Amino acid sequence: MLDIHKIPVPTPYPVGPVNSYLIKNSPYTLVDPGPDTTEARDALMSGLASLGISLSDISRIVLTHGHSDHCGLASWLSEIAGAKIYVHLYEYRKLSMKYDFYQERLSFFQEAGLPTEVLKEILEDVDPLKKPVLPTNGISLLRGGEVLEFGGGSLLVLHRPGHSDGHICLYDHQSKILLTGDFLLKLISPNPNMEPDPRDFSKRQPVLHQYLDGLAAIENIGVRLILPGHGDNIYHSQSVVAKAKKHHMERLAMITSLLDGNTFNVYQLTRSLYPRIKGFEVYLGISEIFAHVDYLLAEGKLTKKESNGIVFYSKSCL
Ligand SMILES: [Zn+2]
Ligand SMILES: [Zn+2]
Prior knowledge:
The protein has 318 residues and is an alpha/beta fold. It has two domains: 1-99 and 136-247, Ribonuclease Z/Hydroxyacylglutathione hydrolase-like (Metallo-beta-lactamase, Chain A, 4-Layer Sandwich), CATH 3.60.15; 259-318, Arc Repressor Mutant, subunit A (Orthogonal Bundle), CATH 1.10.10. The protein is 35% helix and 23% strand. The protein has helices spanning 38-50, 68-71, 74-81, 89-94, 106-112, 116-124, 207-221, 237-258, 266-273, 280-298, and strands at 4-9, 18-23, 29-31, 60-62, 84-88, 139-142, 147-150, 153-159, 168-172, 177-181, 196-197, 200-204, 225-228, 264-265, 302-307, 310-315. The strands form four sheets. The protein has a six-stranded mixed sheet with strand order 1-2-3-4-5-6. A five-stranded mixed sheet has the order 7-8-9-10-13, with no helix packed on it. The protein has a three-stranded antiparallel sheet with strand order 14-16-15. A hairpin with a 2-residue loop joins strand 7 (147-150) and strand 8 (153-159). It is globular, with a radius of gyration of 20 Å. The relative contact order is 0.12. The structure holds zinc ion (ZN) (2 copies). One zinc ion binds next to helix 2.
């Protein structure tokens, strides 16, 4: 049996603390060490100390995904502990020094009809945490399907894109426990972040299809307990999965009705749904609308036409 312990670690974001998980079986493994702040380091160290573990006892660091609230401390911890970092290769790409998050998405902003002054506002809304960068050595790249062995159990690595392209969940089949990172949370619906296809950066990944497929896979796998990346444990996975699906179905219906008899670009749709958002929230809004519009288009529910590089959508007549 795996001996899994939750250590809440504070973050400077509205989402609140991130859950770091210690697997206290050999080799001692930490999932998502938390953000790179003094408060987070202190909370992590005192959480580990209360479990009788010091930083140097950690042999493996597993990252569910590359967002800074989850993985900011990975480099620091791996250096102190001499621990290897396990991360999906699509996330590792984003955790390099030269990676530019917005640069890869500029063509999508143009396609969305985002005004220049709003793009400037997004770019000026600087993250309170510096971008995490992983070392070039001591990394084990994951693709999904790997098994992390422990004395007394194992965790299966499941590739679950939809919130982030290289997001993984970890499944303990013995106890039917699933560590979901940000893929599934009890009270919040994770943002389906727009992601360029790493094989062709001009295309977007079908993030909502990927996310809904991942939710179906959770229903099929048989889960007794979900340990999420934020908030409380989930004992009734079916109702949380159903709630997440309902959230997206309602968004799809809302966007379809906005486009019934109207033609809008993604920025106009974002402003219709979220008139008051600012800065990085606008990025999140655009990201969410793209996820749903791309889904509806692939399902044949919308038609699109381009004008001066901006794409406009309307409800399909079929
Ligand atoms: Zn995240
Ligand atoms: Zn998170």
